[in-house]
Structures are given as C-alpha cells and as structure tokens.
Design goal:
Length: 343
C-alpha cells in the first residue's frame, strides 16, 4: 500500500491502526522480558530455598557456600553465582516465602538488581509491591527505582486525592482499572521547561518527547496524534492529544491547560468524548476517557464541575520542574553513579 492509498482510506484510521500495531510489538517485547526475568528469579528463589532449608548462615556456613559457588560457577559460568549472590538468594527467599501470592508475583518479574535494591531499602510489603508494580509498568531502570525510593514516591502517592467521576460513569471493574491507570499528578520535568510557555508550545514539547511522556503516563498507552481533528455538523474540533489504552480498550483524550482548572474545561472535554464515542470508538471498545491536565486544581472545584457529567473524566496536575529537594537528589545520584558497584 502506498501513501496515496493510505490517504484515500482515512488518515485517522490508519494512525490508529499503526499505533495499535506499535503497542502490540512493545507489549510483546515487554512480556518476553518479564518472562526472562521471571525464569531467572525462579532459579534464584529455588537456590535460596535450598540454602534456607539447610539452615546455613553467614559465618559457620561460609565455607560450604563458598565451595558451592566454586562448583556451580564451573558448570554455569555466566549465571553470577558468587558467594555474595548466593547469600542474597537466601535473603530473597527468607524475606518473601511467607508473603502473599500477589507480592511474590510482583517481585518475580523484576530484574534481579531491582530486587536486591528493594531488599536493602524497603521493609514494608505494601511498599515493595507498590515499587515493584511501578518499576514494571513504567519500565524503570534500577537508577530510576532508586530515585523514586529516595524521594519517598510511595508516601507521596498515598496522600494524593484523585479528582474524577470514574465511579459514576464506568462499570465497577472498569472504574477500578481506570483509577489504577490514571494519576493525580504527572511529572513533566523531562521537558526541561524553565520559563512560561503557551499551551501549544507545551503540547509541541510533549509530542517531541512522546516516548518520555508515554512512560510517565504508564503501561498500555499508545500515541495516536496531537490536534486530532473531529468534525460534526460542519464544525471542526481538535483534541490536544489522543491515545489508545490497550488494557482498558479505550480511546484517551488529553487536554493541556497552562493555568488552574476551570469548570468550562469539563464541558469541552465532555463534547470531545461524545464525538469520539460517536465517530471513532470501535464496536468492541469501551467508552472514551478524558484527562484534563492543569498546572493546578482545587479538588472541590473539580468535584462540583463533574457533577451530573455522564462521560468519564479525570483532572490531574502536572509539574514542569522537579522540587528543589528532588533535583538535589537526582544530581547527587548522577555524581555517585560511577562509584556505585552492582551487586
């Protein structure tokens, strides 16, 4: 099919098809990576269980573990079976063997170095599950995970009050899912914006760094386009940014606002969602969801604006710059990165 044929069928439909294909490839690659991590972790888990059941402890058991390391490395030289790693496997099993199945599934798909970091930094099972989920869904490197822990990202999220009407406009299952997918605050510090910008400039910067923005949004999002054109009754409307969420099977419209939240933003978004559901939503897809991204919002203002609205809409804040303390932490981590030795 050539470019003329693409234009002839419908550019919007082709964009949806292309981006959903890209999302499928990314999802499959991510699944393969998780399966590899899970297989490695399963081996380490079972080795840790062996050491635990033999009641070996550092000190009197060091000689046995040292010899075991030498013999195992001779058979499996590429597996990282040093004495230190074997003791870490025992710690890993000790820590989680009595934990719930959900938590064990979370840590099973993490890279081993991520698990070692959680072992050394986090005590609460609830926090471990939170950080493990965040790392997997957002593709965090070990350094990003470390930064999140040092900035106490878990505590920050627990304090957030989410502003949306998902419980009133979606089925209970879909509402729970949407509540997990969408956040109250999005960090756009990766844009490097240090001065006031117009909404179109903010949108342009996000499109230029769309990969970073999709990672910040979370797992399952694929970008369809910006200034997405909708036409009805001989009038044109343009959605700032349109995405498709694979897990929710929903179109997601995002409107960007430079200033504080205003009630009229909800009416505009409600119209966009109606048009998307009428003309763009697939037969087997769920209702479209709208997110209004503002520099600031008042929860009570949002609550009254969403009252009696029958389309699922959420309102979130964004940060363009990292707070001073977080920025200092990132700088220090960068300076110390070369000195940090992987376990």
């Amino acid at each position: 099919m050539n470019k003329k044929e693409i234009t002839a069928i419908n550019k919007n439909e082709y964009d949806v098809l292309f981006n959903q294909a890209v999302a499928e490839i990314h999802a499959t690659r991510s699944l393969v990576a998780r399966q590899l991590n899970s297989a490695t972790t399963s081996i380490y888990w079972n080795l840790g269980k062996l050491l635990f059941e033999k009641q070996l402890a550092e000190g009197y058991g060091s000689g046995i573990v040292g010899q075991l390391s030498v013999d195992l490395k001779s058979k499996f030289p590429d597996m990282g079976l040093s004495p230190r790693n074997l003791w870490d496997m025992k710690r890993f099993y000790e820590r989680y063997h009595l934990a719930g199945e959900k938590l064990r599934r979370c840590v099973a798909v993490l890279p081993w170095r991520h698990n070692l970091l959680l072992l050394s930094k986090i005590q609460s099972f609830e926090e471990v599950e939170f950080y493990a989920n965040e790392a997997v869904t957002k593709g965090w490197s070990r350094d990003l995970l470390l930064n999140a822990i040092k900035m106490d990202h878990y505590a920050h999220v627990q304090k957030q009050i989410k502003s949306h009407n998902f419980n009133d406009t979606l089925s209970p299952v879909d509402a729970d899912y949407a509540n997990e997918v969408f956040k109250d605050t999005y960090n756009l510090g990766f844009l490097g914006i240090t001065e006031n910008v117009k909404e179109l400039e903010l949108e342009k910067r996000l499109v230029e760094k769309i990969k970073s923005f999709v990672l910040e949004l979370g797992k399952g999002f694929s970008f369809i386009g910006n200034q997405y054109r909708l036409e009805y009754n001989q009038k044109e409307y343009f959605v700032d940014m349109l995405f498709f969420h694979r897990g929710m099977q929903s179109l997601v419209a995002i409107e960007l606002k430079i200033g504080s939240f205003k009630a009229e933003y909800v009416g505009k978004m409600n119209l966009y969602l109606s048009l998307l559901d009428k003309f763009e939503k697939g037969t087997n897809e769920n209702p479209s969801v709208g997110i209004i991204l503002c520099a600031d919002k008042d929860h009570l203002d949002v609550e009254i604006a969403l009252q009696d609205i029958n389309k699922p809409i959420g309102v979130a804040e964004y940060q363009l710059l990292l707070p001073k303390e977080e920025l200092q932490t990132l700088v220090l981590n960068e300076l110390n990165a070369n000195n940090e030795q992987p376990k």
